[in-house]
Protein backbone atom coordinates (compact mmCIF):
# COMPACT_ATOMS: atom_id res chain seq x y z
CA UNK A 1 0.00 0.00 0.00
CA UNK A 2 1.30 3.50 -0.81
CA UNK A 3 1.59 5.85 2.17
CA UNK A 4 -0.60 8.95 2.31
CA UNK A 5 2.03 10.73 4.42
CA UNK A 6 5.83 10.26 4.35
CA UNK A 7 8.31 12.19 6.45
CA UNK A 8 11.93 12.00 5.37
CA UNK A 9 14.82 13.54 7.32
CA UNK A 10 12.70 16.33 8.83
CA UNK A 11 14.63 18.64 11.16
CA UNK A 12 13.61 21.85 12.90
CA UNK A 13 15.31 24.32 15.25
CA UNK A 14 13.65 27.45 16.63
CA UNK A 15 15.65 30.66 16.63
CA UNK A 16 15.05 32.48 19.91
CA UNK A 17 15.35 36.12 18.78
CA UNK A 18 14.76 37.47 22.30
CA UNK A 19 17.70 35.37 23.51
CA UNK A 20 20.31 36.73 21.16
CA UNK A 21 19.41 34.33 18.36
CA UNK A 22 20.03 31.14 20.40
CA UNK A 23 19.00 28.04 18.47
CA UNK A 24 16.69 25.51 20.13
CA UNK A 25 16.85 22.16 18.38
CA UNK A 26 13.45 20.51 18.51
CA UNK A 27 13.51 17.49 16.19
CA UNK A 28 16.22 16.04 13.99
CA UNK A 29 15.96 13.60 11.11
CA UNK A 30 12.34 12.53 11.62
CA UNK A 31 11.23 9.76 9.28
CA UNK A 32 8.06 7.68 9.22
CA UNK A 33 5.18 6.78 6.89
CA UNK A 34 1.43 6.67 7.48
CA UNK A 35 -0.66 4.28 5.41
CA UNK A 36 -4.37 4.67 4.63
CA UNK A 37 -6.39 3.45 7.63
CA UNK A 38 -3.52 3.85 10.09
CA UNK A 39 -3.48 6.02 13.21
CA UNK A 40 0.09 6.88 14.19
CA UNK A 41 0.23 8.30 17.70
CA UNK A 42 3.10 10.64 18.55
CA UNK A 43 4.49 9.69 21.96
CA UNK A 44 7.09 11.11 24.32
CA UNK A 45 7.14 13.43 27.34
CA UNK A 46 6.05 17.06 27.50
CA UNK A 47 8.38 19.23 25.45
CA UNK A 48 9.58 16.36 23.24
CA UNK A 49 8.33 18.17 20.13
CA UNK A 50 5.03 16.38 19.37
CA UNK A 51 2.91 19.50 18.74
CA UNK A 52 5.73 21.17 16.84
CA UNK A 53 5.99 18.15 14.55
CA UNK A 54 2.24 18.22 13.87
CA UNK A 55 2.46 21.93 13.03
CA UNK A 56 5.39 21.24 10.70
CA UNK A 57 3.35 18.59 8.86
CA UNK A 58 0.39 20.99 8.56
CA UNK A 59 2.72 23.68 7.21
CA UNK A 60 2.32 26.12 10.13
CA UNK A 61 6.03 25.83 10.95
CA UNK A 62 8.58 25.53 8.18
CA UNK A 63 11.15 22.80 8.72
CA UNK A 64 14.85 23.50 8.13
CA UNK A 65 15.47 20.35 6.12
CA UNK A 66 13.73 17.21 4.97
CA UNK A 67 10.59 16.37 3.02
CA UNK A 68 6.96 16.05 4.10
CA UNK A 69 5.20 14.22 1.31
CA UNK A 70 1.39 14.19 1.23
CA UNK A 71 -0.49 12.27 -1.43
CA UNK A 72 -3.12 14.55 -2.94
CA UNK A 73 -5.03 12.45 -5.47
CA UNK A 74 -2.57 11.58 -8.21
CA UNK A 75 -0.09 14.18 -7.05
CA UNK A 76 2.50 14.13 -4.26
CA UNK A 77 2.95 17.48 -2.50
CA UNK A 78 6.04 18.28 -0.42
CA UNK A 79 4.78 20.59 2.34
CA UNK A 80 8.37 21.57 3.14
CA UNK A 81 8.84 23.28 -0.23
CA UNK A 82 5.28 23.94 -1.45
CA UNK A 83 3.99 27.45 -2.15
CA UNK A 84 1.58 28.79 0.52
CA UNK A 85 -1.25 28.66 -2.04
CA UNK A 86 -0.63 24.95 -2.65
CA UNK A 87 -0.64 24.30 1.10
CA UNK A 88 -3.99 26.09 1.44
CA UNK A 89 -5.46 23.91 -1.33
CA UNK A 90 -4.05 20.82 0.39
CA UNK A 91 -5.75 21.84 3.64
CA UNK A 92 -9.06 22.32 1.89
CA UNK A 93 -9.13 19.03 -0.01
CA UNK A 94 -6.76 16.64 1.70
CA UNK A 95 -5.39 17.41 5.16
CA UNK A 96 -7.43 18.41 8.23
CA UNK A 97 -6.13 19.60 11.60
CA UNK A 98 -8.05 19.41 14.87
CA UNK A 99 -6.53 21.27 17.80
CA UNK A 100 -7.95 21.31 21.30
CA UNK A 101 -9.21 24.86 20.89
CA UNK A 102 -12.10 26.15 18.84
CA UNK A 103 -11.48 29.26 16.77
CA UNK A 104 -14.56 30.48 14.96
CA UNK A 105 -16.08 33.66 13.66
CA UNK A 106 -18.44 35.26 16.19
CA UNK A 107 -22.24 35.18 15.89
CA UNK A 108 -22.43 32.07 13.69
CA UNK A 109 -24.56 29.27 15.12
CA UNK A 110 -22.95 25.98 16.13
CA UNK A 111 -24.62 23.76 13.57
CA UNK A 112 -23.68 26.21 10.80
CA UNK A 113 -20.07 26.37 12.08
CA UNK A 114 -19.83 22.58 11.68
CA UNK A 115 -21.77 22.41 8.38
CA UNK A 116 -19.60 25.18 6.87
CA UNK A 117 -16.49 23.05 7.50
CA UNK A 118 -18.23 20.19 5.69
CA UNK A 119 -19.04 22.37 2.68
CA UNK A 120 -15.46 23.69 2.58
CA UNK A 121 -14.33 20.06 2.55
CA UNK A 122 -16.47 19.28 -0.50
CA UNK A 123 -19.85 18.13 0.89
CA UNK A 124 -23.09 19.36 -0.65
CA UNK A 125 -25.27 21.75 1.38
CA UNK A 126 -27.84 19.15 2.50
CA UNK A 127 -25.26 16.47 3.25
CA UNK A 128 -23.19 18.94 5.32
CA UNK A 129 -26.26 20.02 7.34
CA UNK A 130 -27.29 16.39 7.91
CA UNK A 131 -23.82 15.28 9.02
CA UNK A 132 -23.44 18.33 11.29
CA UNK A 133 -26.62 17.34 13.15
CA UNK A 134 -25.54 13.69 13.34
CA UNK A 135 -22.11 14.54 14.73
CA UNK A 136 -23.39 17.06 17.28
CA UNK A 137 -25.95 14.51 18.40
CA UNK A 138 -23.35 11.71 18.65
CA UNK A 139 -21.13 14.05 20.67
CA UNK A 140 -24.01 14.69 23.13
CA UNK A 141 -24.30 18.39 22.40
CA UNK A 142 -27.90 19.26 23.37
CA UNK A 143 -30.05 20.37 20.41
CA UNK A 144 -31.09 23.56 22.22
CA UNK A 145 -27.47 24.75 21.72
CA UNK A 146 -27.25 24.08 18.00
CA UNK A 147 -28.46 27.51 16.86
CA UNK A 148 -26.34 29.41 19.39
CA UNK A 149 -22.80 30.60 18.61
CA UNK A 150 -20.30 28.45 20.55
CA UNK A 151 -18.32 31.42 21.97
CA UNK A 152 -19.94 31.12 25.42
CA UNK A 153 -19.97 27.30 25.58
CA UNK A 154 -18.01 25.41 28.23
CA UNK A 155 -14.50 24.18 27.39
CA UNK A 156 -15.70 20.63 26.80
CA UNK A 157 -18.66 21.77 24.68
CA UNK A 158 -16.40 23.92 22.52
CA UNK A 159 -14.01 21.03 22.12
CA UNK A 160 -16.85 18.80 20.92
CA UNK A 161 -17.91 21.43 18.36
CA UNK A 162 -14.29 21.58 17.26
CA UNK A 163 -14.14 17.80 16.81
CA UNK A 164 -17.39 17.79 14.82
CA UNK A 165 -15.93 20.53 12.65
CA UNK A 166 -12.67 18.66 12.15
CA UNK A 167 -14.26 15.30 11.36
CA UNK A 168 -17.25 16.26 9.23
CA UNK A 169 -15.54 16.19 5.80
CA UNK A 170 -13.97 13.09 4.23
CA UNK A 171 -10.38 14.33 4.11
CA UNK A 172 -7.81 11.56 3.49
CA UNK A 173 -5.32 12.86 6.11
CA UNK A 174 -6.15 14.04 9.63
CA UNK A 175 -3.86 15.61 12.24
CA UNK A 176 -5.28 15.51 15.78
CA UNK A 177 -3.61 17.57 18.54
CA UNK A 178 -5.13 16.38 21.81
CA UNK A 179 -8.73 16.51 20.62
CA UNK A 180 -10.02 14.82 23.80
CA UNK A 181 -8.14 16.95 26.37
CA UNK A 182 -11.18 18.40 28.20
CA UNK A 183 -13.74 15.65 27.57
CA UNK A 184 -15.39 13.31 30.06
CA UNK A 185 -15.08 9.53 29.71
CA UNK A 186 -18.38 9.11 27.80
CA UNK A 187 -17.44 11.71 25.19
CA UNK A 188 -13.88 10.40 24.93
CA UNK A 189 -15.43 7.04 24.00
CA UNK A 190 -17.53 8.75 21.29
CA UNK A 191 -14.39 10.34 19.84
CA UNK A 192 -12.56 7.00 19.90
CA UNK A 193 -15.48 5.52 17.96
CA UNK A 194 -15.41 8.38 15.40
CA UNK A 195 -11.66 7.91 14.94
CA UNK A 196 -12.16 4.16 14.39
CA UNK A 197 -14.74 4.94 11.69
CA UNK A 198 -12.27 7.27 9.97
CA UNK A 199 -9.63 4.53 10.05
CA UNK A 200 -12.10 2.03 8.57
CA UNK A 201 -12.80 4.54 5.78
CA UNK A 202 -9.05 4.63 4.96
CA UNK A 203 -8.09 7.97 6.54
CA UNK A 204 -4.43 8.33 7.55
CA UNK A 205 -4.29 9.87 11.04
CA UNK A 206 -1.43 11.32 13.06
CA UNK A 207 -2.44 12.21 16.60
CA UNK A 208 -1.36 13.30 20.05
CA UNK A 209 -3.43 11.91 22.92
CA UNK A 210 -2.43 12.36 26.52
CA UNK A 211 -5.13 10.02 27.77
CA UNK A 212 -3.59 6.55 27.99
CA UNK A 213 -6.88 4.71 27.34
CA UNK A 214 -7.64 6.78 24.24
CA UNK A 215 -4.09 6.26 22.99
CA UNK A 216 -4.30 2.50 23.46
CA UNK A 217 -7.68 2.32 21.74
CA UNK A 218 -6.85 4.29 18.61
CA UNK A 219 -3.12 3.71 17.99
CA UNK A 220 -2.10 1.48 15.11
CA UNK A 221 1.44 2.33 16.19
CA UNK A 222 3.22 4.79 18.50
CA UNK A 223 6.12 6.84 17.18
CA UNK A 224 8.18 8.04 20.13
CA UNK A 225 9.33 11.56 19.25
CA UNK A 226 12.26 11.38 21.72
CA UNK A 227 13.90 9.16 19.09
CA UNK A 228 14.22 12.32 17.05
CA UNK A 229 15.00 14.75 19.84
CA UNK A 230 18.18 16.51 18.85
CA UNK A 231 19.05 17.42 22.44
CA UNK A 232 19.07 13.78 23.62
CA UNK A 233 21.07 12.74 20.57
CA UNK A 234 23.71 15.43 21.18
N1 LIG B 1 7.17 28.83 18.36
C1 LIG B 1 8.16 28.39 19.16
N2 LIG B 1 9.25 29.14 19.40
C2 LIG B 1 10.25 28.69 20.20
N3 LIG B 1 10.24 27.48 20.83
C3 LIG B 1 9.16 26.71 20.64
C4 LIG B 1 8.06 27.10 19.80
N4 LIG B 1 7.14 26.10 19.80
C5 LIG B 1 7.65 25.13 20.59
N5 LIG B 1 8.84 25.49 21.10
C6 LIG B 1 9.72 24.67 21.98
O1 LIG B 1 9.89 23.41 21.35
C7 LIG B 1 9.89 22.37 22.32
C8 LIG B 1 8.83 21.33 21.95
O2 LIG B 1 7.52 21.88 22.18
P1 LIG B 1 6.19 21.08 21.75
O3 LIG B 1 5.03 21.94 22.13
O4 LIG B 1 6.33 20.63 20.36
O5 LIG B 1 6.29 19.82 22.74
P2 LIG B 1 5.20 18.70 23.06
O6 LIG B 1 5.94 17.39 22.98
O7 LIG B 1 4.02 18.85 22.17
O8 LIG B 1 4.82 19.04 24.56
P3 LIG B 1 3.43 18.90 25.39
O9 LIG B 1 3.21 17.41 25.52
O10 LIG B 1 3.73 19.55 26.69
O11 LIG B 1 2.36 19.60 24.60
C9 LIG B 1 9.65 23.02 23.66
O12 LIG B 1 10.90 23.16 24.31
C10 LIG B 1 9.05 24.38 23.31
O13 LIG B 1 9.39 25.35 24.27
Automatic annotation (TrEMBL):
Keyword annotations from UniProtKB, A to Z: ATP-binding, Lyase, Nucleotide-binding
Coiled-coil intervals: none
Domain ABC transporter residues, every copy: 5-233
Molecular function, one GO term: lyase activity
InterPro entries: AAA+_ATPase, ABC_transporter-like_ATP-bd, ABC_transporter-like_CS, ABC_transpr_LolD-like, CP_lyase_PhnL, P-loop_NTPase
Protein transport as UniProt keyword: no
Family, as annotated: Belongs to the ABC transporter superfamily.
Entry-linked PANTHER family: IMPORT ATP-BINDING PROTEIN
Protein name: Phosphonate C-P lyase system protein PhnL
Organism: Terrihabitans rhizophilus
Source species taxonomy: Bacteria, Pseudomonadati, Pseudomonadota, Alphaproteobacteria, Hyphomicrobiales
